[in-house]
Specification:
Blueprint lengths: L1 H25 L7 E4 L2 E5 L8 E9 L2 E10 L5 H13 L6 E8 L2 E9 L34 E4 L12 E4 L5 H4 L5 E7 L1 H6 L15 E9 L1
Antiparallel strand pairs: 1-2, 3-4, 3-10, 4-9, 5-6, 6-8, 7-8, 7-9
Length: 223
């Protein structure tokens, strides 16, 4: 009789230990999972992201819906940058933020730059800054060596490790000489590039700032 009781107690104890280990594994920041989908917003556990991630940006200009565009993010090229970007998207950081710079040059349309919560393109001292993943900073990133049309890359100051939330989308292939190996490319616009092209139709001041706000109404992870 006593042996049966002891055996039952041991079984219960083993079950409790197993459950505890299961919860500990679920809380490990080094893992990645996707939560939600049909029943709720998709959420990625930011840690060591290994799979590509899609992010959709819903846009408006002058209070009017102008459509959306979708980026594919490539952690195999820029894991730190992708993890930082995904985290910001999931926090809702980009919701309501503008594209504050639509630049053109002698070689044609240059970049559409956004992601600054103040909308002036200046650095924000309180923001987390990340390592620049590009050749000039000692990082092998093939995507950063090819800033072609639709490539998405991080903006920064003269400090290689000063990128935070601001990013730019390349309009054409003509500016590689000044961008390649110098900025952390981490994604590509795969749908809706025509929406990004429409930003060029908005009037701008001498600093390339749109005279009518081009606003990200919603940025979210999509499957």
């Amino acid at each position: 009789m006593k042996k049966n009781v002891i055996f039952k107690i041991l079984c219960v104890a083993l079950s409790v230990i197993t459950v505890c280990f299961a919860f500990a594994a679920c809380g490990d920041d080094s893992s990645i999972g996707i939560i939600g989908g049909a029943d709720g917003p998709t959420k990625i556990i930011v840690g060591e992201i290994t799979d590509t991630v899609k992010v959709r940006f819903d846009m408006e200009c002058g209070g009017k819906d102008i459509g959306s565009f979708t980026m594919m993010l490539y952690p195999e090229h820029a894991p730190i940058t992708v993890a930082n970007f995904v985290g910001l998207v999931q926090e809702g950081f980009y919701d309501g933020v503008t594209f504050h710079r639509i630049a053109e040059g002698k070689l044609g349309p240059f970049v559409a730059q956004g992601g600054d919560p103040d909308g002036d393109g200046r650095t924000n001292p309180g923001q987390k800054q990340i390592k620049g993943e590009f050749a000039a900073n000692g990082v092998d990133n093939p995507l950063a060596d090819s800033h072609t049309r639709g490539v998405v890359s991080m903006a920064r100051t003269n400090d290689y490790n000063s990128a935070s939330s601001q990013f730019f989308i390349c309009y054409n292939d003509n500016y590689g000489a000044s961008l390649n190996g110098q900025y952390a490319a981490f994604g590509q616009v795969i749908e809706g590039m025509e929406v990004v092209d429409s930003f060029l139709e908005v009037g701008r001041d001498y600093n390339d700032k749109p005279l009518t706000d081009i606003i990200i109404t919603k940025a979210e992870i999509v499957e």
